Amino acid sequence: MSHDDCKAWCYSRQNPVVQPLLTDLYQITMAYAYWKSGKINDYAVFDLFFRKNPFQGEFTIFAGLEECIKFLERFQYSDSDIKYLKSTMPSSVDPGFFDYLKNINVNNVTIYAMQEGSVTFPRIPLLRVEGPLITVQLLETTLLTLVNYASLMATNAARYRMVAGKNITLLEYGLRRAQGPDGGLSASKYSYVGGFDGTSNVLAGKLFNIPVSGTHAHSYITSFTSIDDLQAKTLAHKQTGEVYDLLELASKYRDAIAGDLGSIVSEASSGELAALISYAIAFPERFTALVDTYDTKSIEASAKQNTFITSINVKNKLLNKGSSAHTQNGVRNNTLISEPTSHHKNGLLRRGELGELYVRSGILNFCAVALALNDVGYKAIGIRLDSGDLAYLSNAARDIFERLAIKYNIPWFARMIIVASNDINEETIISLNEQSHKINCFGIGTHLVTCQRQPALGCVYKMVEINGQPRIKLSQEVAKMNIPGKKNAYRLYGADGYALIDILQRSTEEEPQVKQKVLCRHPFQESKRAYVIPTRVEPLHKVYWKNGKVCEPLPTLTQIRDRVQESLKTLRNDHKRNLNPTPYKVAVSDDLYNFIHDLWLQNAPIGELS
Amino acid sequence: MSHDDCKAWCYSRQNPVVQPLLTDLYQITMAYAYWKSGKINDYAVFDLFFRKNPFQGEFTIFAGLEECIKFLERFQYSDSDIKYLKSTMPSSVDPGFFDYLKNINVNNVTIYAMQEGSVTFPRIPLLRVEGPLITVQLLETTLLTLVNYASLMATNAARYRMVAGKNITLLEYGLRRAQGPDGGLSASKYSYVGGFDGTSNVLAGKLFNIPVSGTHAHSYITSFTSIDDLQAKTLAHKQTGEVYDLLELASKYRDAIAGDLGSIVSEASSGELAALISYAIAFPERFTALVDTYDTKSIEASAKQNTFITSINVKNKLLNKGSSAHTQNGVRNNTLISEPTSHHKNGLLRRGELGELYVRSGILNFCAVALALNDVGYKAIGIRLDSGDLAYLSNAARDIFERLAIKYNIPWFARMIIVASNDINEETIISLNEQSHKINCFGIGTHLVTCQRQPALGCVYKMVEINGQPRIKLSQEVAKMNIPGKKNAYRLYGADGYALIDILQRSTEEEPQVKQKVLCRHPFQESKRAYVIPTRVEPLHKVYWKNGKVCEPLPTLTQIRDRVQESLKTLRNDHKRNLNPTPYKVAVSDDLYNFIHDLWLQNAPIGELS
């Protein structure tokens, strides 16, 4: 078996690092102590849940279920695992334990879970894991690892999708900033689940069938010094096959449009032109160009006093020519008029102010090549902006595209795509939306994959029942208490179709009924109660694993991705908004309320004062 | 080949996800465009470096080199990779390119690198990668992925080590909060490199030969309801083999010491006692117990008005009995005297105030079992605190241990280990140090593995030379400019043995000489210059990969770990301190300074004003 076959073999199932030893040592030491104390037949129920929604939001997307189930399918300690454990644990450990461990399996484990891709909330178990105490304890860390980051990432991606709106393309570009190789793969996978459209990560594309995308880096541009570096200059016409000199065409267009852009041909980089022509020859049907490589030319000369003037001049030029075009076109009028004030509010140059220099080199060269391509039968795709003031630059670029579309009577030119990719996060997108921009696509890396705003979800795995007896873990903080006993969860919907409340009940209670009054209580605050009359009742858990078998069909990644959007649609906007969202209510039934509080008092004896 | 063999096979080399397709698509599209434009024989030099130290610090630890080299050793596109790329790239791509890609190898690539585990600084290349343009471009993303998180994590761990001091044991507990399975593995590996002593992650232990550690979770305690759950109660004496009833012994001790602890036996949990006895029977030589499971008993009854009084009473009791013990012992006197004021400063109960309730149940039960174990010939290891006011609780626990050590004349009892593990970060440790504590070991999870304070390092990979011509990427921000050309780096040491400055030179310059004046210049600020007379000159780069072979022995993980501490020792404390550290200087030679600035002016033509 070659290494490649091996990789394929491993991956057809799951990342090979997901295995029983991917756990905390204390799970194994506890297993031994349980075994040693004769607790082999103890039967336990654990809830896997989180206590607080991430990112100061009020919802979470549940993800990672398929990986949990695949982990169970393959759960077995190998001989080398046992050998390692023997060498690690004290020599006093009874050898019988290792035989026990070698033969342990998960056939007696039952897993109830929410549907992967569902919107979920604090305290609602994402998984309920039942089975022999030792076995279910041994599953803890791996299940947490598989659910925690997957859910955090999917939630983060879903939040980006919400602020960007459904018409914007979102691409994940974070591989190089992820927590190592597999962190990068998980990021690509779960950002797709959360609503991204694709990734730059080729292996993620191959393994998970996610669309991949990418153009070129600045280094591509800088690897060309001048026109002399251009070895191939020709391209055959898409339809006729006639061979054209792309350099000649592009140079002609560059001269013809420089005035429209307020650019000066001599200031544009000829290395950049060469690079773009070569790229267009390689990808005539997918020509997208990074246009900010030479964004800073002449900074030295003009940064302090001159650029301000220059930029105003450039803007006025755009404005004069642009506004007439706009008026003719009947579209947005004078988008740029407010720019000078907003951008130079305090008479200060802000970062990105110099971006109009793009116009001089990058956008000029790009438009020249795109117009040349048009003559050869190809439609360019668009540009990528990787620095500067993205709102201003996207408006300026769009304005240029629109004017050239009219000038040359090629309407598609106005609709070319503008990709932005410089350190984007949720707040940047919100701010860009407020300023109004013409970006069609965001490429998002660091902030997305590291979940910078909150890099861990904090799921926990708590025992709620053992041998039929409920277990409560009291805590100084009420928020940290778990809800004891085996429970079912339901989502109650209102007449408007939106989810109203999630309710946890004891597993022995009857399911809430449509059109019947359900008393919903806050789990810890006595006086917080409400009657709910649901128009729809959705049981939130299904059995996914029982008797050593998968019991529910596992959806494809695309289906999970669709589920996320459907599930989010059932949530009122005030729960989803970025600023001060309304908490969604998670309640307990009256029966469960009394059960919790009886147990609480029972377990909290009255102190004695001395 | 079994799945296990396969895993072993894969891992003997490297995580199988580290492969050429673990990259951004644009590397492949650029490769095609280069190929298509006939740039097959172009030769490029790239620097991999970062621009800013993480965590508001002034140093970074370089890690991930071994993984980079292993990646090169195996660099080859597989047939299935090529098949996937064919299906993904436009159909117009010349099939000859795929043949080229299939046969590409890294035999003509040369990698210069810093030693793994070295302290390093902004702008100094961690790697210098030279070779055919297309090949070195194709390496970019994977190299960045392998270096970025590894270095960030090692740096984070080294910072924890510094604030904790060298006598504290540091354990990484972050698997469940890491960025997925492999994120967890990388975290364990590189926190060990940075100075941690071990991990809870068993697979990391197995794969990387890192010490693993762990005891039990709260669920272990709560799985025992009462003494009746205790099936085995006996333990044979370590030396004599005589069988003892551990329950009887522990119960006897519990009655005997409750008064010393200010505890009331009836308030201690008997389920907890049963759990601890069972755990001691399983691990008599490694008995460590989590003592905060029943930390909150009687909160309901006493939280608002009574506990304050109770806690003061408990403290006074400790104080009265404790201080005489201390005086006898001649050790720290009245550690607890200042506690009531500092803890109840404003007459308010703070989180953790109720922690003395540990004393009532957890610590009482632990001490009873530890004393019982002592009668059977075993020495208990210690306790773990997972909630509450860790400074106060560790002092209280140590005080109890010390008094019982005297009472029973067992000096080792005073030295038992106290592990703390609740949401620890750098600031918590600093704050605990200020308050004075008696913790011997920190178990650190979320904040360590997610690098919460700064979850990405931001290494970049920039072309600095092509076909012998230097390349400069100008930027609006001077900090974002790269230093062009092929460079060597040296560290100059002063007479006191500390590192004074790092200097970058053109590769054609002569090495700085010991005891000879070296003019060091700020790369961008003309007037910032200094003469340095080094007592030692350390070349920072070695060739690690050339002609398809590894050229330097790759150190073991432990050697890299040692290197980190040695390297940090050469750095003055003011560069390493947590608050407002002094920036370490990174300079350029006069020759390089002039070279940069000539090139800058050459590339930044004078703008024209209209």
From TrEMBL, chains A, B:
Entry's EC annotation: 6.3.4.21
All copies of domain Nicotinate/nicotinamide phosphoribosyltransferase, residue ranges: 382-481
GO molecular function: glycosyltransferase activity
Every Nicotinate phosphoribosyltransferase C-terminal domain range: 486-595
Catalysis performed (reactions): 5-phospho-alpha-D-ribose 1-diphosphate + nicotinate + ATP + H2O = nicotinate beta-D-ribonucleotide + ADP + phosphate + diphosphate
Family to which the UniProt record says this protein belongs: Belongs to the NAPRTase family.
Top enzyme category: ligase
Protein name (record): Nicotinate phosphoribosyltransferase
Keyword Glycosyltransferase: yes
Organism of provenance: Polistes dominula
Domain Nicotinate phosphoribosyltransferase N-terminal: 21-148
Origin organism lineage: Eukaryota, Metazoa, Ecdysozoa, Arthropoda, Hexapoda
Pathway: Cofactor biosynthesis; NAD(+) biosynthesis; nicotinate D-ribonucleotide from nicotinate: step 1/1
Region of interest (Disordered), residue spans: 323-344
